[in-house]
Amino acid sequence: MNRFDYVRATTVADALRAKASDSRSRFIAGGTNLLDLMKYDVERPTTVVDITHLPLTDIEDGPDGSLRIGALVSNSRLAYDARVQERFPLLSSAILAGASAQLRNAASTGGNLLQRTRCYYFYDTGTPCNKREPGTGCPAIEGVNRIHAILGTSDKCIATHPSDMCVALAALGATVRVEGPSGERSIAFADFHRLPGDTPQVESTLKPDEIIVSVDLPAADYGPHHTYLKLRDRQSYAFALVSVAAALKMDGGTVAEARIALGGVAHKPWRDESAEALLVGRAAGVDAFAAVADHILAPAVGRSENAFKIGLARKAIIRALSQAAAGTPQSQVDKRVQ
Amino acid sequence: MMDGMSSSPAPHPVGMAKIPVSFRLNGAPTTIELAPWTTLLDALRNHMGLTGTKKGCDHGQCGACTVLVDGQRINACLTLAVMKEGADIRTVEGLAEHGHLHPVQDAFIEYDAFQCGYCTPGQICSAVGLIAEGHAHSAEEIREAMSGNICRCGAYPNIVEAVKHVIDAKAARRLEAAK
After folding, report:
1. Residue B130's closest chain A neighbor by CA?
2. N or C: which terminus of chain B has fewer CB atoms within 10 Å of its end residue's CB?
3. Best interface-test mutation with B: which of A2, A6, A330 has the largest number of B CBs within 10 A?
4. What range(s) does the FAD-binding PCMH-type domain occupy (chain A) (predicted)?
């Protein structure tokens, strides 16, 4: 790890000032991703601004059943919050599908959004990487790419966003509230993370002089008709190869409203609103769900080692929508998929 | 040029000063001056003489460095010691009270829940955190909630038994007290 200056901020204004005073500074909250990357010399900040003492630790009820989640609320506190478990069980389930208890205790809500890809080449400073060193190339495209993206890739980068929590937040239509020198603004979740395009090093629309202060959830009422289905190489403590967050409003056997987002397949949580629209008014069943899966995956491109993800995602989408329609959400304890 | 670093932006005069940090460590108020890049794990092992907490992967993948901070289990390798100002830190050395091992420590011995022992302090601290959280009851739930602690000897069946014994005993005591 490189040497750095340490600043302990106590207010948002303090934190923004400290960050702005050094162009190579980083905020630290949970530290579970930043310190890992610093140990690999992928991140080499010259100033680390400790934001753990900022007053962003509350989960507050908003108007009409909405919820405001402070950026420093830990992943575990969020997952086990009674309001989240009752009103946003999809979010709770997605969080508990990720990482380990130790990491969830440390990791923050804002940090979860900003975590970096687990692409092997991004982590290995001995190899080129357009995300780590723009312009050097992407060895994953022709290399070891089993865990890489099949949707929304570019010829510069095929990395995935690793979060489970963010897949649920995308499906639930969250808003990210940020603060900068010119005040507050809100970013729709779909606009927060970016596709790689020609600038894979720019992963979100958060500006370098801004800080996430909260994630806001609009009221949701899907009852038991939701699921977070995560498929991976081992059943616990592994990143998703493919995951699906699904939530449905059912009118008898007919779908009245649908939300569906995928993880492990793209540079951002992959929500497809046109696919959701396809489901509305249709009878819940494998035929309708397969049509949705084919629609979502039509633009998918497989590489030498990850083409299996297309077939896996198709089956995962059908299964997840079937679970949601039946009101039988995937358990995050008994995760056998038969 | 001396090395590859010379082409980096102008040298930044960083990290020369040690920073004082105060916390409770195994119940005792403690103040120490540390370089800011010292992880909590390295502070415990290399600066405070507490080598019970183990360094396995140093990347949050194995759980050998699990300690309790404000009662919650975390990976000591993925946090900076200077961030722990005002915190209450408990390591495996601080679990025994008045000369008696913690019930989880007793259970690990009773159920032979280790072989080489390297992961054991992390397993024990993780189990203490798990029991305080109160979400895991069945063997299946314990396995899931302990998945952040890797044991390469494969002592998992007995670890689960040991943790379950403590949870069941606690539930039985609660039931008895309610009568």
Report:
1. A101
2. C
3. A6
4. 1-222
Q: What is the 3-state secondary structure (H, E, C) of A45-64?
A: CCEEEECCCCCCCCEEECHH
Size of interface A-B (CB pairs under 8 A): 104
With 0-12 / 13-18 / 19 or more C-beta atoms within 10 angstroms meaning exposed / middle / buried, residue A217 is: buried
Residue B159 included in any domain: yes
Q: Which residue, B93, B123, B155, sits at the end of a domain?
A: B93
pLDDT digits (tens, 9 = 90+) for B89-128: 999 999 999 999 999 999 999 999 999 999 999 999 999 9
Q: Report the C-alpha gap between B148 and B126 in whole angstroms.
A: 8
The reply to whether residue B78 touches residue A31, judged by beta carbons under 8 angstroms, is yes
Residue A205, CA distances (Å) to A12, A24, A113, A240 in order: 19, 18, 11, 24
Cβ distance B75 to A106 less than 8 Å, yes or no, reads yes
The angle that helices A286-297 and A308-326 make with each other, rounded to 10 degrees, is: 140
Interface probe with B: pick from A102, A125, A331, A335, most Cβ of B within 10 Å: A102
- The rounded distance, in Å, linking the Cα atoms of A76 and A337 is 25
The fold of the A226-326 domain, in CATH, is Enolase-like; domain 1 (3.30.390)
pLDDT digits (tens, 9 = 90+) for B133-145: 999 999 999 999 9
A198 exposure class (CB count in 10 Å sphere: 0-12, 13-18, 19+): exposed
Say which of A8, A100, A333 has its CB closest to residue B140. A333
Provide the domain limits for residue B149: 103-178
CATH of region A5-51: 3.30.43.10
Range list for CATH 3.30.390.50 in chain A: 226-326
Report ipTM (2 d.p.).
0.96
Whether A4 and chain B come into contact, CB under 8 Å, resolves to yes
Cβ–Cβ under 8 Å, residues B51 and B67: no
